[in-house]
Amino acid sequence: MTRSAQLATPLLERFGVLAQARATAADALRATSPIDGAEIGRVAPVTPEQAAERIQRARAAFLAWRTVPAPRRGELVRLLGEELRAAKDDLGALVSIETGKIRSEGLGEVQEMIDICDFAVGLSRQLYGLTIASERPGHRMMESWHPLGVVGVISAFNFPVAVWSWNAALALVCGNPVVWKPSEKTPLTALAVQALFERAAARFGDAPEGLSQLLPGGREVGELLVDSPEVALVSATGSTRMGREVGPRVARRFGRVLLELGGNNAVIVAPTADLDLAVRGIVFAAAGTAGQRCTTTRRLIVHRSLADTLMQRLQAAYARLPVGDPLEDGTLVGPLVDQAAFDAMQAALRAAEAQGGQVSGGERVLAQQYPDAWYVRPAIVRMPRQTDTVRQETFAPILYVLEYEHFEDAIALQNDVPQGLSSAIFSNDVRETEAFLAADGSDCGIANVNIGTSGAEIGGAFGGDKETGGGRESGSDAWKAYMRRATNTINYSRELPLAQGVRFEV
Ligand code: UN1
Q1: Ligand 1: which residues within 6 Å by Cβ?
Q2: pLDDT in tens, 190-243
Q3: Are residues 80 and 171 in the same domain?
């Protein structure tokens, strides 16, 4: 048995999913660890019939769950949070093994799940509607928020479990069951999370059967979820290409979508920036998670006067970055998820070079030790301008560096990409930072000052506009996407005045 399989096996055993992770079917999904490329499990995909049946089961659960008082629904999410706390080390380790994240980021992902559970428990007592002044005497208006229906979740490999939790914790307190199609690259962490959910449901006692359903499988399974009229909301995280297909398909049946697609996140470094902060913020956001977050910093827009100094400092920091086994203490950059990710990175670097870029780093490392895994030195590429390649999202640690002279040009460059997820400015000039945050500043769903683009907390709404898809998950009032709104007008008078002064008397 390889090392990654050796480490994964006892974890799967503790979650009680080892048998499910040892499927023998010819079409089983193969989970491999990016750490060494070795197989760590096989999971049987659902057949179309099973998928339809699980969606039906969720639908049946909805009919019961929607009438359970929201604070009681919150109790189930509280128990889920407890299970996650108890399993944090094991689940964090499994996330690291299945995705190649460093230990601290695997644990951080589970912490993010715990945080959203806590948030959702509080929210379960705060699903407020408004009362609204009526124009008619003896009338009152209000709005009520009701459970929506089955929520379908399609998640990506890079946050294999946190994305489910942002959706599931809110959906559950909002009165909705969840049907989850995890990335086919990460079926094992999905099995583990489903097992934790079932433990929480068993402790809860009278939760309707089928509140959380797992649909392991490939694209066809995702399509079933997208096309099912029983699925009221499809929350999909992944590439813009995927979103372009999912959005219209769900719209065709008048379903609701929540899309979390690509990002092409930039950091602006202005002349007054605290460079120590900027260097730390940029290195974590650009090279951390091996560049495989949707919030990863992919572009650096630096004032001309600082460009050489900042480049030197970044290059020195990059040279010290420990790349290697993500389970080892001290490693900061783990592997890319697979060879396809490596090939895409190399293709982007060659294209950037052809467009005038000066590349440093980006080469494969540790190939002798791990012939089937894909470790790279994070790359910095100084670009003469924002070319086609820079405007695309490549899911790898490539930081393109662009220079600016006037502040307005920095904002224009920042916004001149198709994506609109996250952005940041390092500056101590309040005029600049406020301009960056203003209506005609950054056009992203996330705009930060003096911190990097990645690592958002769950308390805010998470998501972005343009090709990022427009969805918002997690904190603030993102819960509203998971409920349907009813406007109620109540007449407590003995008259029947019509709105807008219309007269209609027989
Ligand atoms: C993602 O990469 O899909 O802000 C989500 C962050 C994390 C979430 C990333 N909280 O980087």
Answers
A1: 112, 158-159, 237, 293-295, 454-456
A2: 999 999 999 999 999 999 999 999 999 999 999 999 999 999 999 999 999 999
A3: yes
242 and 273 both lie in a single domain = no
pLDDT tens for each residue of 456-466: 999 999 999 99
Which residue out of 260, 393, 403, 432 is catalytically annotated? 260
For position 238, which CATH number holds? 3.40.605.10
Q: How close is the Cα of 490 to the center of ligand 1, in Å? A: 43
Q: Are residues 386 and 408 in the same domain?
A: yes
Element (H or E) spanning 93, and its range? helix 88-99
In a domain, 427, yes or no: yes
Describe the chain by its helix, strand, coil percentages, rounded to 5: 40, 20, 40
Written as one letter, the residue type at 396 is A
Q: For this structure, is 184 an active site residue?
A: no
12 pLDDT higher than 90: yes
Single-letter residue type at 408: E
The whole model's pTM is what?
A: 0.97
Q: What is the pLDDT of residues 281-296, one digit of tens each?
A: 999 999 999 999 999 9
Domain of 398, in residue numbers: 265-461
On whether both 88 and 202 belong to a single domain, the answer is: yes
Calpha distance 168→62 (Å, rounded): 13
**Helix and strand counts by DSSP (H, E) for the chain:** 15, 23
Q: Are residues 225 and 137 in the same domain?
A: yes
Q: Are residues 310 and 387 in the same domain?
A: yes
According to the model, what pLDDT value does residue 373 have? Answer: 98
- DSSP 8-state class, residue 506: -
